[in-house]
Design a protein that fits this description.
The chain has helices spanning about 10-25, 25-30, 45-60, 65-70, 80-95, 100-130, 130-145, 160, 175-180, 200-215, 230-240, 250-260, 275-290, 315-330, 360-365, 375-380, 455-460, 470-475, 480-485; strands spanning about 170, 185, 190-195, 220-225, 265-270, 295-300, 335-340, 370-375, 385-390, 400-405, 410-420, 425-430, 445. The chain is an alpha/beta fold. It folds into three domains: about 5-145, DNAb Helicase, Chain A, CATH 1.10.860.10; about 170-420, Rossmann fold; about 425-485, no CATH class. Helix 1 packs across helix 6 and helix 3 packs across helix 5 (about 80-95).
Length: about 500
């Protein structure tokens, strides 16, 4: 067999490849992740490749001749049995000649076969005009077998571990989060904010994007629910801290403000359920080709993307979408922020924890940072709310932050941090914050009863009166502070 006979990766090349796969454990280990049985033309070859892959999955080595003989007996097609025996005989008896060449070229063989498969599949996609799907398949085909990096060599790469951390982060508008997240959301990170409907999730994305733009970063904001113009007005509202329903009255201020911004912002709308993560990737590439390189991407919101993976279960599609989003962040080395809904049980909770977020477990497994934004009916009336850190790859989680929140302009200000209830205070200070009408409240001091040990002793001594409600007795004896604490009703309590 001459080298010429291996041209075009035909039957002779494929026999030689089978020989390498059956006899060289190291070679199989190096390429098993890109190998598919459909790359081989002969049905007997395809059967052999299936056995190799299945056996390697279990035992991390090629199957022996004896194992293949046992499996061959299970083939109920006599013609196929004969063909398999013949191909196995040729593979095991193949000479050592040209095997090094076959090993060297095998990645190209896989890539070419994958590309051929992609082009064949593209015929039907061309008929419906699904060019994004075609590009996705072609891109994957061209990448097959290109990753030769096995990872960090611990013994040899000591120097890399002691270099200054090169993680590049974009800060959030909230200093406490930046401390917890070691600077903010970093390149390759996927951050997710859970929240109830109408609770301000989309506004929190505007706050994240707007803050980044003010710091000089370029932001791409993808909206799958709201129109581009309306989202743009939300950014106007955030930058000026004016209610969005009155922003049209501030045209001159908007024009002046935009000239002072250091970063750039593009808002792009895609129809709900039509765009895929590859659609977004293509748009990012298009923007870069036109001179706009994104430093951060916002998707409002990922669950509304369409998956190319057709399954009966929506959950499987969502998992695929989230994995693809995380993959995009890592590929582009930029942070991606998005939001997700909570389930019905979590919608009324004062603090939304992990078990109340819809599909939260799988989603949080994929994300690097997961935060919940909870705002009950009472919170919306009082312009308050809470952030709860559900997952933090870079530090502590389980912390809850009380907020002043005005979602008419994307205003979120931390009150205090607490992971455990704090003892009641004799007085309460309400911090300055903007109301929805744009006015600013002054600090208000509200006097509270100053309960002493004598008060508590008196209560427990006198609190055994017949026919008295427990809470009524507490109020009568001046123990309002502990009453509110026991209910968890103090606005300053977490």
């Amino acid at each position: 067999m001459t080298l010429h006979s291996l041209d075009n990766y035909g039957p002779n090349f494929q026999i030689k490849a089978l020989s390498c796969l059956l006899n060289k454990k190291e070679f199989l280990i190096s390429i098993h992740d890109i190998l598919e049985d459909k790359y081989f033309n002969n049905s007997a070859h395809q059967w052999i490749i299936k056995q190799i892959l299945e056996y390697h999955e279990k035992f991390h080595c090629p199957p022996s001749m004896e194992v293949l003989k046992v499996e061959l007996k299970k083939v109920d097609n006599e013609v196929l049995q004969v063909s398999i025996r013949e191909q196995l005989k040729q593979a095991y008896q193949s000479s050592e000649e040209d095997l090094a060449y076959v090993e060297e070229e095998f990645s190209n063989f896989c890539r070419n076969q994958q590309l051929k498969k992609a082009l064949m599949s593209s015929i039907d996609l061309l008929k419906v005009g699904d060019y994004e799907a075609i590009r996705f398949m072609v891109d994957n085909a061209l990448k097959a077998g290109q990753d030769k990096n096995v990872g960090l060599e611990y013994i040899k790469d000591i120097e890399s571990r002691f270099r200054e951390d090169d993680r590049i982060t974009i800060p959030t508008p909230w200093s406490k989060f930046n401390e917890l997240f070691q600077g903010g959301l970093g390149g390759g990170d996927f951050g997710l904010i859970f929240g109830n409907p109408g609770g301000g999730k989309s506004w929190s994305l505007v706050a994240l994007g707007g803050h980044a733009v003010k710091l000089g970063y370029n932001v791409l904001h993808y909206t799958l629910e709201l129109g581009e113009t309306y989202v743009g007005r939300r950014y106007d509202s955030f930058f000026l801290q004016k209610p969005v329903n009155k922003i049209l009255d501030y045209r001159n201020e908007v024009e002046k403000m935009t000239k002072e911004l250091d970063g750039k912002l593009i808002v792009k709308e895609f129809p709900t359920g039509k765009a895929t993560i590859n659609t977004i990737k293509s748009h990012i590439d298009k923007c870069e080709s036109l001179g706009f390189k994104a430093d951060m991407v916002i998707i409002d919101y990922v669950d509304l993307l369409h998956s190319k993976r057709k399954t009966k279960e929506r959950k499987e599609e969502i998992d695929d979408i989230y994995l693809s989003t995380k993959g995009l962040a890592r590929e582009l080395k930029i942070p991606i922020w998005s939001v997700s809904q909570v389930n019905r049980m979590g919608a009324k909770d004062a603090v939304i924890e992990g078990d109340k977020a819809a599909g939260s477990y799988d989603k949080m497994m994929i994300t690097d940072i997961a935060v919940s934004l909870s705002r009950t009916k009472e919170d919306k009336e009082d312009n308050t709310g809470r952030f709860h850190v559900m997952k933090n790859r870079y530090g502590a989680d389980g912390l809850t932050f009380n907020l002043h929140a005005d979602t008419s302009m994307g205003y979120f200000e931390f009150k205090q941090i607490s992971s455990t209830p704090q003892p009641p205070k004799p007085s309460k200070i309400v911090n300055n914050f903007n109301l929805s009408n744009g006015t600013k409240l002054k600090s208000i001091k509200k006097e509270e009863p100053n309960n002493t040990e004598e008060d508590f002793d008196k209560f427990f001594e006198n609190g055994k009166s017949e026919g008295k409600d427990f809470e009524e007795l507490m109020v009568e004896n001046g123990v309002q502070n502990i009453l509110r604490h026991s209910r968890g009703g103090d606005e300053d309590m977490v």
